[in-house]
């Protein structure tokens, strides 16, 4: 039996309510249904629905999510018994032939020495002192030339100068050795896919495994990518010293290998589809077909997923970002200026976005099943862009029946302990909107 895979640590993951979601969709009809998972994210809902026999169209505006969906839903997969070993042998043979990190040999040697000597404080110091593409302190002329070449590729893929992750995120989000391994694997995956030595499905599986390894290695709160741990000016760094030592010890190649094996263990025989559109784009690109159900778990807070997962997006596309600059400095999260901004994360725009979502469901003759998490303390913690009452009112103006179902569990906050409200009691809901 298949086991649902969460490829990376994911904000608002629906792992705990998968059974409830599937049961609610199963109630609609005894037959297997055509379901659109509109904001598929980590794809755990898409996987659960596919495993239950439904025909799934998995969609998300983030490109990495499409890679997850292709991989975990088995879209275009060849089911040869020994395909895992063939793909793994192809990737690792090519990987060993690539020598991409000579620019960073010295810093990697220093970093490795710090790890071997359990010197977490010096690793923390490397966050500031190590080479970065935006740093004005880099003196190595060969590296400066490589950085200059990389900057000319802003908005384009960096396979011609495949040191993208190390240049932008080495020493901060990842160790330098980890970053060069991510770069090398990403270059290898693309090279093998272009040569036809691995299939398009295997490429997505490998990208998913790579992002899984990167998620485990990230030196960040919650293993997300909104920003790396900041230690400048802290008097007591013991926690961060321990944490950076643990995170820098994560072996990218080993974790990639483990994740690849898990992905290959999933079996799928459905006719599924993976798309990469915003909701607004999707309404123009679905054609004349219909769905039985649209499942939607849009963002409800001001937190933009493109902020929390900008680095997986960069690794997946391997496009060179143009970093946002504020007051002459790069932002603390090293964000690109062209991140997608969801209307659902804006108090002003959220009501109209939900109206468009309801219209999309009606245009596809589909029931709409929404996940929602409440916020009983109003502005404390992560305030919602729309209340349950406001949302219900909008939906009732579109659908003949709107059923609000309170789930028997609490919403997990992402906030740090300093910001969290311990007794918020935020509830999870499902809202089932029926067309008839």
Architecture blueprint of SSEs:
Elements: H1 18-26, E1 34-37, H2 44-51, E2 55-59, H3 63-72, H4 83-97, H5 105-116, H6 120-129, H7 141-151, H8 164-169, H9 176-195, H10 200-217, H11 238-248, H12 252-265, E3 273-275, H13 279-285, E4 293-296, H14 305-308, H15 310-317, E5 325-326, E6 329-330, H16 350-363, E7 367-373, H17 388-396, E8 401-410, E9 427-434
Parallel strand pairs: 1-2, 1-4, 2-3, 4-7
Antiparallel strand pairs: 5-6, 7-9, 8-9
Summarize the structure.
By secondary structure, the protein is of the alpha/beta class. It has 17 helices and nine strands.
> Major sheet: size, sense and barrel closure?
7 strands, mixed
- Per the principal axes of the C-alpha atoms, what is the gross shape? globular
Residue-averaged pLDDT, rounded? Answer: 89
- Count the DSSP helices: 17
Major β-sheet strand ordering: 3-2-1-4-7-9-8
Helix content: 40-55%
How much strand content do the residues show? 5-15%
Count of DSSP E strands? 9
* H-E order: HEHEHHHHHHHHHHEHEHHEEHEHEE
| Rg measurement, Å | 22 Å
Structural class: alpha/beta
Spatial gap, N to C terminus: 35 Å
> Unreliable segments (pLDDT under 50, ≥5 consecutive)?
411-424
């Amino acid at each position: 039996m298949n086991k649902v895979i969460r490829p990376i640590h994911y904000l608002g993951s629906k792992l705990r309510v998968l059974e409830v979601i599937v049961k609610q969709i199963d109630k609609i009809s005894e037959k297997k249904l055509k379901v659109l998972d509109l904001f598929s994210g980590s794809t755990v809902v898409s996987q659960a629905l596919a495993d239950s026999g439904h025909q799934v169209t998995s969609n998300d505006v983030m490109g990495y999510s499409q890679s997850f969906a292709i991989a975990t839903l088995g879209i275009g997969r060849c089911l040869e018994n020994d395909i895992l070993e063939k793909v793994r042998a192809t990737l690792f043979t090519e990987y060993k032939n690539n020598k991409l990190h000579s620019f960073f040999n010295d810093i990697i040697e220093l970093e490795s020495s710090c790890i071997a000597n359990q010197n977490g404080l010096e690793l923390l110091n490397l966050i500031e002192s190590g080479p970065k593409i935006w740093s004005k302190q880099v003196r190595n002329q060969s590296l400066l030339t490589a950085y200059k070449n990389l900057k000319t590729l802003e908005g384009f893929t960096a396979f011609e100068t495949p040191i993208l992750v190390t240049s932008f995120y080495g020493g901060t989000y990842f160790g330098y050795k980890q970053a060069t391994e991510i770069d090398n694997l990403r270059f290898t995956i693309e090279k093998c896919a272009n040569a036809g030595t691995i299939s398009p499905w295997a490429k997505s599986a490998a990208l998913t495994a790579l992002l899984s390894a990167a998620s485990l290695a990230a030196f960040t709160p919650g293993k997300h990518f909104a920003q790396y741990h900041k230690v400048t000016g802290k008097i007591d760094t013991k926690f961060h010293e321990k944490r950076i030592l643990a995170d820098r010890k994560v072996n990218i190649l080993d974790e990639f290998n483990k994740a690849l094996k898990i992905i290959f263990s999933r079996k799928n025989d459905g006719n599924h589809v993976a798309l990469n559109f915003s909701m607004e784009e999707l309404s123009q690109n679905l054609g004349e077909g219909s769905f039985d159900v649209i499942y939607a778990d849009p963002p409800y807070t001001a937190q933009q997923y493109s902020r929390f997962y900008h680095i997986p997006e960069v690794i997946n596309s391997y496009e060179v970002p143009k970093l946002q600059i504020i007051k002459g400095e790069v932002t603390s999260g090293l964000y690109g200026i062209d991140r997608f901004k969801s209307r659902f994360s804006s108090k002003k725009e959220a009501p109209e976005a939900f109206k468009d979502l309801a219209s999309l469901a009606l245009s596809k003759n589909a029931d709409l099943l929404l996940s929602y998490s409440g916020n009983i303390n109003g502005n404390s913690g992560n305030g919602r862009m729309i209340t349950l009452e406001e949302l219900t009112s909008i939906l009732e103006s579109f659908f003949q029946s709107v059923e609000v179902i309170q789930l028997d569990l609490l919403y997990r906050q992402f906030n740090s302990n300093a910001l969290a409200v311990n007794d918020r009691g935020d509830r999870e809901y499902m809202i089932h909107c029926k067309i008839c």
